[in-house]
Write a structure and sequence with these properties.
single chain, alpha+beta, 60s Ribosomal Protein L30, Chain: A, four-stranded mixed beta sheet, 6 strands, about 30% strand
Length: about 130
Amino acid sequence: MQIERLKPADVWDSTPYKFTQAVCVRQCQNLVFVAGQTGMDEHGEIVQGLESQIRQSFENLRRIVTGAGGTMANVIRITGYLRDMSGLETYTKVVSEVFGDKLPAATLLEVKALALEPLLVEVDAIAAL
């Protein structure tokens, strides 16, 4: 399998915003569609604070992708949902730490509510293995 992160010269550079404009996957064997992950730890407890919830969401995503036989470099698409877009800087900082130079294609939305009141963020994903 080959994963190519596309940066067309005639489209604005999304790198400072911590996502890739498009990802092309060639000769893929499996796709993993990961349901929305939140700031809920392995004990079902919601961690406190926005940054902690973002980090827990991505840790949950990492555990799922690893369990399927991949790494975070196999994540080709994420959609993030923030309850308050003022958390954008924190979100992009964590995304940058988690993915390094293997940024997935991404969308980030502000939403009015998530499934449980204390949740501040949710992230779903697609991984190609």
